[in-house]
Design brief:
The two termini are 31 Å apart. Helix 5 crosses helix 6. The chain has a domain of 48 residues. It is globular. A hairpin with a 2-residue loop joins strand 1 and strand 2. It has 146 residues and is α+β, with helices and mostly antiparallel strands. It is built from 6 helices and 4 strands.
Length: 146
């Protein structure tokens, strides 16, 4: 499946999307309607701190050449609280070393993708948050910078 089809997936549980590939994990959870907790919107795979660190490291690799430091953090048993701040510090350092021109291209590409696929993102946001469509659309436009 191509990355352009990710929003069309109806698998249950819903797979994770890591490094351009659909993946599954050991655990799942039910994504529930925030206004009606008895209503399950869909079952989704969830990641543990180690899987999360690997995914973030792969994203950093794709973005700016990676650091490998996130995986090094996993030498001791991680918890979300002790791994996440370090992950953000590593990514922040990587981002700081990225040229302004490269940052601009990355952000503009992300905005173009959001704009091009706005209808899909709005639909998902309405489903997952049970917000009104106009509210979801406004949030996507704000993310794009419009």
């Amino acid at each position: 499946m191509s990355t352009t089809d990710i929003l069309a997936i109806n698998d249950s549980p819903f797979p994770c999307f890591v490094n351009g590939e659909l993946t599954t994990t050991k655990k799942t959870f039910n994504l529930t309607d925030p206004h009606e907790n008895s209503r399950t919107l869909r079952e989704v795979y969830c990641v543990d701190p180690e899987e999360s660190a690997k995914a973030i490291d792969l994203a950093a690799e794709a973005l700016v050449g990676g650091s490998g430091l996130l995986l090094h953090l996993l030498a001791s048993p991680p918890t979300v609280m002790n791994v996440m701040p370090t992950m953000f510090n590593v990514l922040d350092a990587e981002w700081r070393n990225t040229t302004i021109d490269r940052r601009r291209r990355i952000i503009l590409k992300a905005a173009a993708i959001l704009h091009e696929r706005m209808g899909e993102f709005v639909k998902i946001m309405v489903e997952e948050t049970t917000s009104m469509e106009s509210f979801a659309a406004r949030n996507v436009l704000l993310a794009i910078g419009q």
